[in-house]
Amino acid sequence: MSSQENGAAEPGPDTLGPPTSASTKDEAITGDVFTVTIGATVPTGFELTAAEEVKEKIGVDARISKDRGRIYFPITTDKLFQLHLLKSVDNLFVVVEEYDYYEFKESKEETLMEMMQLASELPWTKALEVWKLNRTLKKKKGYRKRGKSTKVKSNSEATDATVAESEQQELPQAASAAENETKAESTADEETSTQDSEEAEPEAKIIKFRVTCNRAGDKHSFSSNEAARDFGGAVQEFFQWKADMTKFDIEVLLNIHNIEVVIGIALTEESLHRRNISHFGPTTLRSTLCYGMLRLCKPQTSDIILDPMCGTGAIPLEGAIEFNSSFYVAGDNNDMAVNRTVNNICHFQKRRADKGRASGLPIDTVQWDLCNLPMRTGSVDIVITDMPFGKRIGSRKNNWDLYPSCLREMARVCTPGTGKAALLTQDKKCFTKAMSRMGGLWKRLHTVWVNVGGLHAGVYLLKRTEGVFGQTPEDVHESRGTANAQGDEKDAKELP
């Protein structure tokens, strides 16, 4: 991830637009409503869920990209505020130009030279106008400023070149950056006054920018850094902007996936997946991934929704905010996890109260034994949880005993016939084995394969059968106890 910085930037024009040229004269924006294409990065595997949300909230059809984890959809500038109603997207950007089949030259030098020429030929004007409108919207609504994120940006910069060349380039980066940026909010008020004073004199401000290249595919003759460097140098020369890797105003995106190329301008300064969390744990889920899991289960009015392994409370907190006609119970056996959940809930409630809004949330938190929940049989409508992968938390050997026990207890508290569960885990072998013993209690409906911090995990959507707990073959099977325990131990030794 880089943009060219060689040599001092020449004094630039006072406006954001490019120098007057034949390619831009006929695109002058006079405040009229026009349509642009918006791109959004979403948790890998939840592209369809994000497209459904776009259709529901904005009323347009979204196109799912060939590059997993991205969707595209049109929007008119008078409805730009609706972008900030979306809860399933990590980052948003306005598309400058997209090429479905970009013919790269065989030699690296020719390809990079062509990219440099491309910078001056792109229709930048409308995208820059949308960037300015979006910035005004965020300021009016009091969105968090980027703050003193120099350290955060430089950290992510070091990993970008590696991540961008992988199949899942943006999602791991967003996950790894989550904990590093938790201090940014404390400096937001300071930075607000600074940015306000800067925007009061736009004529005196020099626009700073950077180019970020996200590349996937193994048939390119160039690296991500080389593409960003040369394309960024051409952008700098065309606009007379100043390159800055950390305190930039505009981030130009160069997304390359095999032969598909999309150039865009970022509309989000930081990923939206951390919007509700202030106290992070070792395995905190993104809010966008939590929203996708909740949406899979389609919560209804008065539903009781349970997260028996809540960690930092990301799932029930997202649910209580976005699907607030249901009631949420969050619990964990770890006292530190329960404390983090309580702190996250209190922090969000305080933020609401400070804005003069009602701060109450339909959520409660309990510390308990997962395999012996203090809840009545059949009293829960939906169970949604992030199960231990056996890596940062627990172990695969422990999972061999834990998964059958927790699936059984979840089945006990879940309503027969109508109850549902969405369970996230990367330990597919243990989960599959445990499910094979739960045929009388759970039926698997669907599996969504997702990327969680670079790990290939599954969200398993289950439905509670009509079998009465205590009268199924699973309960008889378990009562035999010792003989089965020996078989489980043998199976556990075969795990990789």
Describe this structure in words.
By secondary structure, the protein is an alpha/beta fold. 36% of the residues lie in helices and 20% in strands. It contains 14 helices and 15 strands. Strands 2-3-1-4-8-7-5-6 form an 8-stranded mixed sheet, sandwiched between helices. The two termini are 36 Å apart. Mean pLDDT is 80; it is low at 1-15, 19-30, 142-202 and 479-496.
Fold topology:
Blueprint: E1 35-41, H1 47-57, E2 63-64, E3 70-76, E4 91-99, H2 108-119, H3 124-141, H4 150-164, H5 170-177, H6 188-200, E5 208-216, H7 224-239, E6 242-243, E7 250-257, E8 260-266, H8 287-297, E9 304-307, H9 314-322, E10 327-332, H10 335-354, E11 363-367, E12 382-386, H11 396-413, E13 420-425, H12 428-436, E14 442-452, E15 455-464, H13 473-479, H14 482-493
Parallel strand pairs: 5-6, 5-7, 9-10, 9-12, 10-11, 12-13
Antiparallel strand pairs: 1-3, 1-4, 2-3, 4-8, 7-8, 13-15, 14-15
Write down how many β-strands occur, each being a DSSP E stretch of 2 or more residues. Answer: 15
Pairing-aware structural class of the strands and helices? Answer: alpha/beta
Report the helical percentage: 25-40%
Q: Write down the Rg.
A: 25 Å
Please, what is the average pLDDT?
Answer: 80
Low-confidence regions: 1-15, 19-30, 142-202, 479-496
